[in-house]
């Protein structure tokens, strides 16, 4: 089924795997101008088994052909991914690596490569993955599912095939980030003011941004952020940028991302075109003692029932993504507040709650945000749901996901029947027995 193939497409990038390269390396498939190597099929096959999504080599190859077909058709249909989106995704992946291995030095030692080299190796893969995802979204952008369709979907499932819902947990947290000291802010401010003086003396803003800015998404473009509408940027940045005249530079502006030197290039109505140089504090140098003491006192008040956890999260948490929801953590894969208690969970969470009882709260624990901020958090083990057969009453949202996936697959199957007529696909005879896509499923065909 294509459902399994699309799950495979979303597995982590090959270059971030520690698998040793496969010696046999030749082209085994071609989709228009895109090629698939035998080593890539082998790696996906191995990685699927490691991540509890075992597949055959035929399924691995088919998933890669699906991916290339989406990308090739996106090129034909002019479905493009912006460079900034690719850069942002790369940055996020590198931050995940830093969280996993502790720091950049450990990554370099583990892989024998710098972070920039790793980013360079996976850039094209990230672009392809984002393009494929955007093409899938375009294919199913008008898809909707009703409660009645969910009920009909569930009624079609044979009694002995009703899905088993694994153990799930509900968790919440309260985060406090380490505060940047006055001395650190002054140090960064002086550096930015020095850049401003150099620019006013004749140096180019874009040259200094490329050399010194710590915003990986805009640095290579000389700090250029392109056009932004009101509400897209953080308030401090936007307010400063909109006050400036064309080509005028700001003084130092502080935001949640760090300290900025901003230059507004153009303004038109409610839009502005700006560039910046961003300097960020060295979060590894920040002291978390005050944050730990604060959370420890909050935890004491919660345990005494002087304040509810949800209220404390709304009032005191620095995590804006969960603050308004009372600190509830959401499964990034499903958007549900129930998270599977398995290897798909964030490792630090998994090992933390493994020894906890429902209803308890941890002491302050180290925490690092996706954008690299250092802090601490307390975790509340709110609920645990035992494995059970899915039911409409208890698992409607999850069944809705399954029903939506089925409906989405039907739409994509229809799209593939048309798309394979527009795209040339050639498969190496070694994989002829795989019968890619199935003879009766496409109108174009696959050449062996």
UniProtKB/TrEMBL annotation:
GO terms for molecular function: peptidyl-prolyl cis-trans isomerase activity. Its EC number is 5.2.1.8. Residues 318-341 are annotated as: Disordered. PROSITE patterns: PPIC_PPIASE_1, PPIC_PPIASE_2. InterPro entries: OMP_Chaperone_SurA, PPIase_dom_sf, PPIase_PpiC, PPIase_PpiC_CS, Trigger_fact/SurA_dom_sf. Pfam families: Rotamase, Rotamase_3. Residues 166-266, 269-372 form the PpiC domain. SUPFAM superfamilies: FKBP-like, Triger factor/SurA peptide-binding domain-like. Keywords: Isomerase, Rotamase, Signal. This is Chaperone SurA. It comes from Emticicia aquatica. The lineage of its organism: Bacteria, Pseudomonadati, Bacteroidota, Cytophagia, Cytophagales.
């Amino acid at each position: 089924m294509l459902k399994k193939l699309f799950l495979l497409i979303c597995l982590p990038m090959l270059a971030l795997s520690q698998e040793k390269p496969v010696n046999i390396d030749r082209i085994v498939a071609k989709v228009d101008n895109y090629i698939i190597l035998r080593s890539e099929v082998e790696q996906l096959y191995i990685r699927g088994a490691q991540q509890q999504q075992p597949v055959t080599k035929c399924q691995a190859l088919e998933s890669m052909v699906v991916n290339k077909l989406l990308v090739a058709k996106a090129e034909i249909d002019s479905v493009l991914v912006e460079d900034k989106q690719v850069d942002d995704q790369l940055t996020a992946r590198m931050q995940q690596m830093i969280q996993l291995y502790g720091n950049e030095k450990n990554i370099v030692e583990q892989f024998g490569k710098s972070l920039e080299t790793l980013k360079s190796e996976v850039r094209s893969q990230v672009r392809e993955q984002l393009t494929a995802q955007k093409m899938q979204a375009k294919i199913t952008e008008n898809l909707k599912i009703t409660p009645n369709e969910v009920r009909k979907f569930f009624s079609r499932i044979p009694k002995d095939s009703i899905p088993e819902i694994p153990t799930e947990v509900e968790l919440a947290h309260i985060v406090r980030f380490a505060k940047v000291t006055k001395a650190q802010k002054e140090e960064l401010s002086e550096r930015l003011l020095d850049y401003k003086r150099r620019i006013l003396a004749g140096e180019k803003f874009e040259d200094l941004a490329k050399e010194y800015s710590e915003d990986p998404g805009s640095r290579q473009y000389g700090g250029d952020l392109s056009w932004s509408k009101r509400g897209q940027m953080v308030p401090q940045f936007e307010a400063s940028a909109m006050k400036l005249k064309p080509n005028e530079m700001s003084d130092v502006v502080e935001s949640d991302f760090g300290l900025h030197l901003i230059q507004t290039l153009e303004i038109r109505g409610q839009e502005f075109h700006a560039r910046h140089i961003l300097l960020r504090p060295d979060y590894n140098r920040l002291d978390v003692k005050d944050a730990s003491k604060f959370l420890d006192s909050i935890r004491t008040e919660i345990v005494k029932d002087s304040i509810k956890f949800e209220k404390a999260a709304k009032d005191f948490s620095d995590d804006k993504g969960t603050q308004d929801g009372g600190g509830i953590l959401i499964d990034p894969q499903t958007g549900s507040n129930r998270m599977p208690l398995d290897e798909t969970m964030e490792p630090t969470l998994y090992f933390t709650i493994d020894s906890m009882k429902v209803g308890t709260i941890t002491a302050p624990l180290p925490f690092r945000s996706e954008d690299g901020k250092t802090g601490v958090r307390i975790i509340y083990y709110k609920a645990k749901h035992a494995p059970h057969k899915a039911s409409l009453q208890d698992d409607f949202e999850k069944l809705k996901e399954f029903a939506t996936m089925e409906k989405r697959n039907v739409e994509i199957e229809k799209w593939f029947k048309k798309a394979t007529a527009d795209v040339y696909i050639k498969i190496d005879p070694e994989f002829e027995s795989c019968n890619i896509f199935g003879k009766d499923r496409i109108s174009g065909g696959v050449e062996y």
